[in-house]
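On clarity, I found the account of how folds are encoded harder to follow than it need be. What matters is that the chain and its backbone geometry are given together, residue for residue. For the editor and my fellow referees, an illustration may be useful. For illustration, here is how one protein appears when written out as sequence plus structure tokens:

___
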Amino acid sequence: MGSGQVTDWQGKHVTVAGLGVSGIPAAKVLHGLGARVTVVNDGDDARAREQAAELEALGVTVRLGDGATLPEGTELVVTAPGWKPDKPLFTAAHEAGVPVWGDVELAWRLRELDGREPAPWLCVTGTNGKTTTTQMLASILEAAGLRTAAVGNIGVSLLDAVLGEEPYDVLAVELSSYQLHWAPSLRAHSATVLNLAPDHLDWHGSMEAYAKDKGRVYEGNRVACVYNVADKATEDLVREADVEEGCRAVGFTLGAPAPSQLGVVDGILVDRAFVENRQKNAQELAEVSDVRPPAPHNIANALAAAALARAYGVPPKAVRDGLRAFTPDAHRIAHVADVDGVAYVDDSKATNTHAAQASLAAYDSIVWIAGGLAKGATFDELVAASAKRLRAVVLIGADRALIHEALTRHAPQVPVVDLDRTDTGAMLAAVREARRLAVEGDTVLLAPACASMDMFVNYNQRGDAFAQAVSELGA
């Protein structure tokens, strides 16, 4: 079962590690194929017991509160992507010679079930921008008249996509570093690593291991490996990848593109990769104004999506139409309101320093609302790069002192309001302080550079609190 296509699941002993958005569908699919499925789960709370009862009613065995022990007779482990590689369950599997797959690997292996012609995968990963780029790509593919879906880490099950009754033409697949770690057989039509910055190092153990897992997305690519010209680490991953003969390296850049690149010329997104005589010719794809919002990092997302779509053969008009039709998810550099000539922008999704730096680069004069859970991050590079854009800073959250220290070192001239509170009402106080500090033409930007769980359930709730506070400014 370690390699090749599994065609007979009848009676196979499969252990599924973890309940939740990937574990439950995997258990149901495997049980439906005739496998003998045991689900193990660390937690034993009310929600887990409810999920366990649902699976047990189907005939699946569930062990709650014990995710460390490998069930006797296990021939394959299918794990939820978030389970760390150093868990005892995986050590036991390795010692027993039992392969470990993630849900992405399982979907990849099952895509040819019943002899169907599988839809090609266009894959997107990176530290930031994955979801937006994947959704842009799906919008472009739809504009070309293709049956597609944005799936994977985006929250839509890949298993549902590959096993659905009505086949897709092509899939836009968002992949996290966790998912890629557990997907050794994945071979995409084309793929991109949008950017690389330190993230999830507690899971991967080192930046080198994190980058290696991201780079797996390029392995075996057939048509194009799309990289970020401004982020050399992504190009290095392309150079290191073992791809199919004829697969091309294609760059995207916010500047004028060289041959085999997509870029921007005089406000126009242009293609010098998928055109005849790319040494001399370029193809207009869309205008910068077709990208919403037209912040630099979002234009980069659009170029990456366009490159993957063009690799698949999508015509230029579909790129333009798809970008125009795309509406970004909430809390991603979303304009909330203008109050007294000041713009209020919600980028609560900027949960790490790399995302926050991209957000800050989109505006010239900013009152920055930041802070939360740092997750081990440092802020010197972010503050140093953004200092000239900052009119003032309002800090909230548990680890705000780390940002304050970086501001003292690299932007001592910038006024800082340090709100010593972590209750949800702190957002209203932060927005009111930001209004006091801003002048006409400024942008009040929520780009926390931190996770939200010290004060909020998630970044969505944090962004909603910001929008609510802005709405109360005129009250």
In short: Residues 296-311 form the longest helix (16 residues). The mean pLDDT is 93.
